[in-house]
Each structure stands twice: as C-alpha cells, then as structure tokens.
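Hello K.,

You asked for the raw outputs rather than the summary table, so here they are, unedited. I folded two proteins back to back in the same session to keep the settings identical. This is the first:
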Amino acid sequence: MLSPHVKENLKSVSLIVLVFIAWEFSCVIFKISPIVLPRPSVVFTTLIVQMPALWPNILQTLATTMVGFLLGTIVGVALGVLVGVSRTAYKTAYPLLVGFSSIPKVAVVPIFVLWFGSGTVPAILTALTTCVFPIVVNVATGLATTEPEMEDVLKALGATRMQVLWNVSLPRAMPYFFASLKVAVTLAFVGTVLSETVASNLGIGTVMMMATSSFDVPLAFAGLFALAFLGIALYSVFAVIEQRVCGWANRRQELAVN
C-alpha cells in the first residue's frame, strides 16, 4: 500500500512524462521541423552525445552561479536584517533596492563588462544582483512578523535588542529565508546565463548562443534542459534543508487536499 506522499509524487511524475509524450507526438503528427521545435527524444540524445563537450560548460555555469548566489545571500541577509530592524534603513534602502531590481539585468551586464572585462566576474555579479532582492524582501518580512508584544515582554525580562533579534526574530524569519533561497537560486541561473550570452567564452549560455548562430536548435534545447536539471536539483536541495530546519513551520502533508 503506497503512502499518500508517494502517490502524490507518482502523479506529478506521470503528468511530467505525459507532457513530454504530448510534445513528442505533436512534433511527429504536425511534422514540425527540428529547427523550429526539436522532439524531446532528439534533445535528450543530443544532451547525451554532446555531454563530453557540454560538461565543462555546465560546471562553469554551476560554479559561477553558486558563487554569485552565495555572495547574493550574504548581501541579501545583511540588507534584509538592516531593513527589517531599522525604520530609517527601510525608508532609505528599500526604495533604492526596488529601483535597482526594476532595471533589466541585460542593461547592467555591459557596465560590468566595462568595469571588469568579459569572463566570469560579470557573470558572478549579474547572478548576485539578480538574486539579492527576493532575499532582502523575505528576510525583512520575516523579521517584521515578530509580535511587538513578545518583544516588549522579552525586553521587560531584561533581554537586549540583539538578544531578541538573535533568539526570536531570526528563527521566526527562517521559513521566509528558505522560501527566498528557492526563488533566488533559480534567478541566479538566469543572471549567469544572461551574462554568458553577452560576455563569456565558457558556460551554457555561450554554448546556446553558438548553437543558435549555427541553427543547431537541438543543442540549444539541450542547454536549456541542462539548466532546468541544475535548477531543479538545487531547488530540491534547499527544499530538503528547509524541511529539516523549518519543519515546525510547515503544515503536515496529510492535511493537504488530494
């Protein structure tokens, strides 16, 4: 007898497989050219055959993304705590962050290239700037959920402002923090690949640009699939860590409506 959790996962996997099957048969039935939309079987075959050439580019994109994501997390947490605990910082930094996040990152990449040259550094900075905003917002929101009454009680018991922040506010903000990490890590990939398509000689973005310029659409889709796999893998890692750290904040899955 399968548990409800396993049944739910099987349903999800089945639906994903059905999507690829529908994609495959649609390309065959409507005779869609591989230059327009390659079949999934062709894309997977290309991914396997080209893996020796793709692997260094995959590692480059993954390493660049993780460095940018790590730096973005550090900056985002620091700014989020500052914005969350200081009203002056909120009124000063928040409008600037909103304005900067509204700028298309494709417009920022040439500036990074002008400052640091083409290569890995612009990609790291683009990943950083892409993922930092959701972390700031969620950390600040999590800190704001601490009830003023609880703070007043703790201060009446002799707790300092730093003790309240460290022992109450930050733990209560952890679910928001991990929620932002799952979003930020996918955005970091977007920033990295965007920079690689503009100013890099290595990475999945570079491979996709070269593939499209030579009309090798299956290879371009293979790059997309590789990015999707990396994003899903890292998202799953943070979801598992979130469940271990913040399991107390999640509702029991048995109570979910099937």
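The second followed immediately with the same parameters:
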Amino acid sequence: MDGTKKRKVHVAMFSGGAGSAYVAHHMVQTYGKENCVLFFTNTLWEDEDNYRFMQEVADYIGIEITQRIDGRTPEEVFHETRFLGNARLAKCSEELKVRQTIIFLEDELRNEQDIEPILYFGIGPHESHRADNLKDFYSHFPLEPIETRFPLIELFREDLDAKGIIQEEWGIKLPRMYTIAEQLAEEGNENAEILIKHNIKGFSHANCAGKCVRGGFQHYAILYAIWPERYKEQEEMEERFRDSFKKNVSILKKNAGPYTLKEFRGKLESEGFEKYLFQEDADIPCVCSFS
C-alpha cells in the first residue's frame, strides 16, 4: 500500500482538552473543513460538561464531531479482561480509545474510503516525551505507519496559552473539570477553598469525570475533596472487581503493593486530604491524555 498516492485527511484527536481544541482549529484553518476530521472516542465515563465544551468548539471551528463508541464502560472492560486498570496499565484506554481509533483509521478511512490519515495531537512542549511515544506507536501498530503531527511543539511558541485563547478570544468556557475548585469555592465549599489556597483550580485533565485509573494519590485526594460521591463510585467499582475475581488488586499502589481506595479514604478521613495534595502523581503516559 502506497499511502503517498491517496488523498489525505487531517484528523484531530479530540477528547475535550484545550490543547487538542486549539490544534483542531489550527488544522481546519490550514487545510480547510473538507479535508479535516474532529475525532472523539467516547468512554461513556465522561463528565457531562465535556460534551458541552466539545460541541461549542466544533461549532466555533465549523466542523462536526466524528464519534466512535465501543459501547462498554471502563468497568465492563476490566471485568471482561479480568484486569483492573491502574497507573501502569489501563486496558480501558487500549479497548475504548486505541482500538476504536485504529478501526476508524484502518477500516473506515484507509480501506473503505481509500484515504490516508494524518493525526494531530494537542501535546505541548512540556510533554514532548509523550509525542515520542505516539510517533513510535503509530509507526508500528497500524498495518502501515501513520504520520503524526504535534503543532503545539513543532509550530508554536512554548508559552502559548491555549486555555486563555479559547476562553478570551473564542468566548468558550473551559470544561468545568479544569476549574471546578474555583466554581465550588465561590459557592463557599470549604474543601474547594483549601484547594485554591494551594493553587489547585481543578483537575489536570478532563478525562473520565475524575475517575481515571491512571490517577495517583494526589489525583484521588482532589477527587475526594471535590466530588466525594464520585470517589465513592470508584471505590465501589474497585471493590466489585476485587470481590468478583477474589484478587487483592487496586488502582493505587503503596510500598509496591495493593492499596485500595477504601483504605486511602480512611486516611483521607482521619488525616485530611490536604497532606496528599503534594504527592504528585507519576508522569505515566496515557492515551486519554494524548488528545
């Protein structure tokens, strides 16, 4: 297969992040709407405000969202694969995002439409190692290598404020997960006020409504502080898996061993969540964060 002879289509990998929104706009402005695709893989665990943000971005740049859904939730993937996702390995990403993306690229674009895709990711200069991982992945995993581009690294200055541009110039409010602590603090929420005191406005990414299995102690301390009901949902999900398969496994790890969300919640309740805000999560690439 000679991809150079095919018509090319530019595909922005989009999951509600500010970086990918800015890159999608740049892509459409450069190559035209008719040559571009805004691609979203839905895990069914997304925060409802992500959908609002994505639709407003799509309307602003003038291109419809192309969505693919596996149909399973991350929990269903964990049970079917008999493996609970964690910071080292998240099969939810593999099944619900990577697999759906490869099917779209290989089957729908290359085989059915005879189009050669070029992928665009909203990764910034501070995440250049993730760009290297993606370049390597899309060079080897598809049947034929797929070109990947990273405009925030390759074209723009390092201090580009994509979030500020989207809010101030485009007039689009960011997904609430980025700023949920600010919103709740304005309503008098004491936990949110503590987060703001430590310059934490919300979550570092908007994936899976805060229930990301790649998260570590800091992430889940923030989730507990902001949305204790969602923390409880994730805790119960973890317990269901442990009970179903009689496995001593967990999302978090402590001293190289399992450390359940139930155990961690006990610490958060007895010691307070504030002390865990300074245990930065491991910087492990996740496909969910690549868009």
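Residues 91-112 form the longest helix (22 residues).

Happy to rerun anything if the numbers look odd on your end.

Regards,
P.
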